[in-house]
Write a structure and sequence with these properties.
Belongs to the AAA ATPase family. This is Spermatogenesis-associated 5 1. By secondary structure, this protein is an alpha/beta fold. It is built from 8 helices and 21 strands. The longest helix has 17 residues. The protein is elongated.
């Protein structure tokens, strides 16, 4: 069985959806110029159009990953080989309609782009492209283009193992519009972050965060308390931050991370202002989907009051507690904080209604103990 060595794509092919093949592969596939070809790689598949190599050399493959599955990364491993049975010539048809999810580059561009223009933009950017359900189509950097990519949700007519061609007559329906910071669980970041030895911790934290976000009304009907926030306790370097990132990505939530010491400012009131800005950003993100607000080294923001006469520090603690009370009851937002100095925290932070769940992670067994904190 012939093996093809995967080489970096030709620079001029970026965004063209072309795959460069040798004459022998063209003949074996029965392909003609521009025929749609599905290429299966270790982490996913892509949909390309067949084009000849400039040097007409056999044994090599160059691919533009314009249309690919979510798990497929743009940067493929070096010296990767592809067998002929991983290449498949697909029948094609002209599409009557395609339904998509639009992913903007950032929230500012999403807000400033009129909804009436988005559908026309998508139709123009997809024109002459072959697409398939559950594939993502990325776009080259074009001045004035606010879109990063679109995800193909469905198409008509939809036939199994068939490529659909978007034409001028194809109708486009935009079902959903999100931004890259919400869509970070897909594309290049879709792979799950491995957290070695912390499966139990990951499962427990996921249950605390995911279930209330997905089924808040069910919790209310059953009379169950919905976690307002979770406190991770463990020594430095145990993997608390990595654990939160893994869980947030696994449940498809936007993750907003801040380090406690960074909040402090030099001007009077600047620290409180920075803290309010972070919580306001979390509220904005929650309009697009579930959000996990992660505060690392929270002991620097909420030390025990009364142990010092530092008025600015006490004001910051009061501000944090007030913000927790204000955001905790909102659907779609869960607060997760981490510390390696639980004894230094102000007791008011850990009362029910604020950070009312605790996850304790230690070096030896990496055990997780989830308890209610009733102080």
């Amino acid at each position: 069985m012939a093996l093809l060595k995967l080489l970096p794509q030709v620079p001029e092919d970026e965004g063209t959806q072309r795959c460069r093949l040798g004459p022998a592969v063209f003949s074996a596939l029965g392909a003609t110029l521009g025929s749609p070809v599905k290429i299966t790689l270790p982490t996913g598949s892509c949909l390309c159009t067949a084009w000849p190599r400039h040097d007409l050399a056999d044994g090599y493959l160059q691919v533009d990953l314009k249309c690919r599955t979510l798990g497929l990364k743009k940067c493929q491993p070096q010296n990767l080989t592809v067998s002929m049975d991983q290449l498949k010539l697909l029948p094609s048809c002209k599409l009557r309609r395609v339904t998509v999810k639009v992913i903007f580059k950032n929230r500012a561009l999403k807000k400033s782009t009129p909804k009436t223009m988005v559908q026309d933009m998508v139709k123009e950017l997809l024109r002459k492209a072959y697409v398939s359900p559950h594939h993502v189509v990325t776009f080259a950097s074009i001045p004035g283009n606010p879109l990063a990519c679109v995800e193909i949700l469905s198409m008509e007519p939809a036939t199994a193992e068939e490529a659909g061609l978007v034409t001028l007559k194809t109708g486009v329906t935009v079902k959903e519009a999100v931004t890259l910071d919400w869509h970070n669980h897909s594309m290049e970041d879709s792979a799950r972050i491995p957290v070695a030895g912390m499966n139990d911790a990951s499962t427990s934290l996921k249950e605390m965060i995911d279930l209330p976000l997905r089924f808040p009304k069910t919790f209310q009907k059953l009379g169950l308390s919905v976690p307002r926030g979770v406190l991770l306790v463990g020594p430095p370097g145990v993997g608390k931050t990595l654990l939160v990132k893994s869980v947030a990505r696994g449940i498809g939530a936007s993750l907003l991370c801040i380090d406690g010491p960074i909040i402090y400012g030099s001007r009077p009131g600047e620290s409180e202002e920075n803290l309010r800005r972070v919580f306001e950003q979390a509220r904005e993100l929650s309009s697009e989907g579930p959000v996990v607000l992660f505060i690392d080294e929270i002991d620097s923001l909420c030390p025990k009051r009364g142990s010092s006469s530092n008025a600015p520090e006490n004001r910051l603690v009061a501000q944090l507690l007030t913000l927790l009370d204000g955001i905790g009851g909102e659907n779609g937002i869960v607060i997760v904080a981490a510390t390696n100095r639980p004894d230094a925290l102000d007791p008011a932070l850990r009362r029910p209604g604020r950070l009312d769940r605790e996850v304790i992670v230690n070096y030896i067994l990496l055990l997780v103990i989830a308890v209610y904190c009733f102080i």
